[in-house]
Amino acid sequence: MLDDFFTRAVIGGIGVALVAGPVGCFIIWRRLAYFGDTLSHSALLGVAMALLLELNITIVVFVVSVVVSLLLLVLQKRATLSSDALLGLLAHATLAVGLVVLAFMTWVRVDLMGFLFGDILAVTPMDIGVIWGGGIIVLAVLAYIWRSLFAATVNYDLATAEGERPDVANIIFMVLVAAVIAVSMKLVGVLLITALLIIPAATARRFSASPEQMAVIAALVGGLSVWLGLRGSLEWDTPAGPSIVVAALVCFVLSVMPMPKLWAGREPRRQQPSDRSSGVKEP
Amino acid sequence: MLVSLDNAGVFRSDRWLVRGVSMSIEAGEIVTLIGPNGSGKSTTAKMALSILHPDEGAARQKPDLRASYVPQKLEVNWTLPLTVNRFLRLTNRASSRQMEEALALTGTDHLAKAQMSKLSGGEFQRVLLARAILRTPEFLVLDEPVQGVDFNGEIALYKLIEDIRTRLNCGVLLISHDLHVVMSKTDRVICLNGHICCSGTPATVASSDEFKSLFGDQAAPGLALYEHRHDHEHLPDGGVVQIGDEEAAADSSSGNKPGTTTGTRVDA
Ligand SMILES: Nc1ncnc2c1ncn2[C@@H]1O[C@H](COP(=O)(O)OP(=O)(O)O)[C@@H](O)[C@H]1O
Ligand SMILES: [Mg+2]
What we know:
heterodimer; A: mainly alpha; ABC transporter involved in vitamin B12 uptake, BtuC; 12 helices; disordered C terminus; B: alpha/beta; Rossmann fold; 2 domains; 6-stranded mixed β-sheet; 9 strands; binds adenosine-5'-diphosphate; binds magnesium ion
């Protein structure tokens, strides 16, 4: 079954989506989209370093992302530069340096487009093992820190005061984001990882009443997008990463369209004490 | 001793937000912090909860202190699907019966399934208080817990806080800008203005010169007004009427808090 490159891509892709959904929810809740962008752009620097040192790409990308995210945490605490300027600076600096270093390495044949936009053919059985093994670990750790991380997301001070140790949860979460970037790079490419993290989560928002529900729905929507995107990519010979993102976008657009009563009725209605619209008001 | 601050101060942006704060809170005690805007009340509470660490002096907590915190500001943005019931379980487990009870105490049981981002200001504060109580804390910190709550509700909530103190025997640190409350069930009042300017029982503080200069000459009648109402707290509105103050009576019937005109309120 794993002989077929398309099947491998689908299995790998769904593995990535199942992890990206819940992690992406936290990225949305905490308004970290730009932060995720910075991290994923720095992945190209990781690729360049891995090729230079002849090491495993996934592992080096993971390590570089962890270092960059911790660096960001430290810089944000003391820097005078505003944090979005800092993120923008680092995002493009690491991307540019990565591209330049890759261009210098004339002795290795580099499929740059594959790194930027994902390479459906490149998913090996080994990659699938890494994606699912790594994915299960990421989800297990996320489940373990869930309460602290969520409490810190709602209110950092409250979480601290009530003994949830949000700093620890925050650092672990950064590492998880780095891991998701490292394993999803091959599939969607460094430029579009953030899209895979946030679009399914944003799609899930409309259908969720609780954070846990939103995480599960985001994972499912992500999986569906991967399948649709890869089918489309095969059908029309389009690059894998962008096709998956387009599929996710279609799901999102559908989710924000006005819906028939089916969903509208699920939202718990709250009674309004004063009803100004009706004329039946008591005197 | 649950918590103690010893000559503690916080230095940020080239200035001391508060300095030289010494206080301690015992189990079963209600301590109220009052003071004008920006006088460091919230900062002091954060030191007591180890959210901020003093840059000078020391803050000590009983080991493994179980604290509950109602922060002054808490926003739940719309990207976050969060029902009231889920919010109650933010930092602790709770059975549905316990959640129901906690909500009933604050009169919000009908909101159990509502989204936090859709609550009104007063409803939100009640839910915050319900959550804090649900944790059965040893130390309860309430930073302006009745903002946006209507006057009758306010009195009921303060009554509830007192009941909780008795039932759980917990220490309570209450931050309030309502002077008439300070005169209520508080064991000790600490009056802050970047430093502790006076402290003691409500009566001593109210008659101290520092207090008068901080809150103006109007502060003293406020005490009398309150004590009168205290005798009649089963008639929260009526207390004001009974002192025969036409103006205050008219004021309370129009839905404003009594004391606005008599100067008992200090807007922090
Ligand atoms: N992290 C901070 N950095 C700089 N100034 C701060 C910080 N937090 C609060 N302040 C300032 O400290 C002062 C005291 O704040 P606060 O304790 O919230 O006062 P209060 O609760 O009594 O209104 C205010 O002037 C506020 O602007
Ligand atoms: Mg304050």
